[in-house]
Amino acid sequence: MNHLRQILKDNLLSSFEDIKINIAEENRIIIECRKESIITVLSHLKSDGFNHLSLISCVDWINENTFELVYILTAYTEDPEKGGLNLLVKTKVVRDKPTLYTVINVFSNAEPFERELHELYGIHFSGHPRLTPLLLERSYEIPPFRKDFDTRQYVEDFFKQIPTIEEKKRTNERT
Amino acid sequence: MDRNKIGKWLKSPGKMAQKYSLHALYFCTGCGIIEIPPTITARWDAERFGVIPVATPRQANLFLITGYVSLKTLKYIIRSYEQMPEPKFTVGFGSCPINGGMYWDSYNTIKHLDKYIPIDGWIAGCMPRPEAVFVAVTHLWTLIDKGKADGYKKYREDYELYRENQESVLGKLEWPPLFSKEKQHEASV
Q1: pLDDT digit string (tens) for B145-154?
Q2: What fold characterizes domain B21-188?
Q3: Interface contact flag, B161 A165, Cβ < 8 Å
């Protein structure tokens, strides 16, 4: 296990500059790179054998004013060393009007993940064929998964202001 | 049957037949659907109460809303409810249709379902056991006897108020209003 991870680490460090690698636990390797070089890093790893994109996720660091995107890659092999590894590729984006390039040309199953992130966090992916709503039914001023979206205030303002039918009938009778 | 029921059967056979054959459209909303298959199958048998599941809304009498209702689900609950023929009854399961339940501070779920669709009865619990479902069905029978299970009549009378509430949550609805005042006036005249 150590052997394979060391090989991967040396390989990546020699091919790219400005990249940081951290071997966290038994089966998890964290790779941090800049947002302009995601596509080259991901295609390098795909040609290395890690050809399954499990998830694209996002963390909202509101104090540092950044979003951190995480791409999780695994490998479909019977090889016990490589098969248990999860690679996490992390990048940071500015929180005000964030834009990124899509990775659909590398992994074509990234389309619904990027739609979901666009809807829930407000990140714009340029080059995506259709960024339409996937899960939610209406639009919100602040995208609802950000940390400055106050859910209790939203419920107070929106859902509790709708009167019940008996109250409406009583106000109709009075006027 | 008991002797005291023969009188009821002779007085109003339509009502008695309607009570003992409530065909249920179970709309699989949310988490509560996990309690419906045990209720219907052989161990806690619901067919001895007359409740069986049917295929389409046009054949159904009783509407079971079994869990939390998000905005997307509410659109299709309204469409299914309006397709059911009258007389029809609705029962809300669990604490989520009553006051929001576990999702009381969520941006996407309905907190109080009575504002959008008329509901005849509530069952408390998270999720209620099959025995609680049967207690609710027997309560519904007594309400039908007294004539108090009139959710569908209220929907017909106050349709504009219901539709205002529905549109304030969902935006403009794509289907035209079900009841309009001129046609009701024509029908009664």
Answers
A1: 888 888 899 9
A2: Rossmann fold (3.40.50)
A3: yes
